[in-house]
Task: structure prediction
Amino acid sequence: MFGFSIDLPVRKEWKNVDLLRTSVQTCFSAVFQDLNGCDALSMITGELLENAMKYGSWDDTTYTVFRLKIEGTTETATVTVQNPIVVDSDDVKKLFATVEWIASFDQPIEAYRARLREIAGRDGSNTDSQLGLVRVAYEGGASLKATLEGDSVIVSAQLDL
Amino acid sequence: MEDLVVGDLTVAVSTSDAIIICRWTGRSVEREAELALEPFFDNLLEAAGETRSIDMHFEALAHFNSSTISTLIVFIQAARRKKVPLTLHYDESLKWQRLSFDALRMFQRNDELFSLTATTNE
Result:
């Protein structure tokens, strides 16, 4: 049966987001004919890694806690990022609230538009837009799940290929 | 106006009497995209003044992150406030561009201040 799996620890330097995102793009372009699916996989990889680096807890942790995993078949793929967090921190609460908020919409595009509207209504500079996960759901067509495991959070995005 | 070069992103600028054209190439992947893009956008609006429109071409852009999208939305609002006509061009044969830019149609109004143009490079 056709299947694939990538599982690797990640160092938390920001440049690694794009290194891994472009690697995923290149790698899956060699596997799948549908380049749109490769774009979606690489975008999801990038956004989940960015989220982990922005909102994870990076004090006194080893790189092995930060992992990227991509697995799937010809039909579906799941991108999973595990990163260290401070349990009960505002960032973690916000993460779970965002996943729940996205799921409350009938269609991901409604959540995406709602977030765009919110960003447009803000005064001044764009900071902490919280758009990444919504983009994963809308543009990536992925269903999101977040779970806690000890002092880390596991965020996974499953999409049909 | 000078081109913007940030990491793997280049925005090439050409200016005429009536229009400023910006061509985006590479990848926009900065952690805080607004730090580089907002000053550039501010300069663009100043250069446009009351006489020029702005055309932004994204067709050759390989990727942008959500931080870039957010910054772009803030720019769309700023251009409208200053009454600078803004058109974004994208490649609809690329699904990611189609989805990203189609969603921005919600910012179109019944005026000529903001529009989206889909092209195809297929």
Summary: Strands of chain B lie at 4-6, 9-15, 19-28, 53-57, 61-64, 86-91, 114-119. Chain B touches chain A at residues 8, 27, 29, 31-34, 38, 63, 65-67, 69-71, 73-74, 76-77, 94-96, 99-100, 103-104, 106-107 (CB under 8 Å). The longest strand of chain B covers residues 19-28. Chain B has a mean pLDDT of 96.
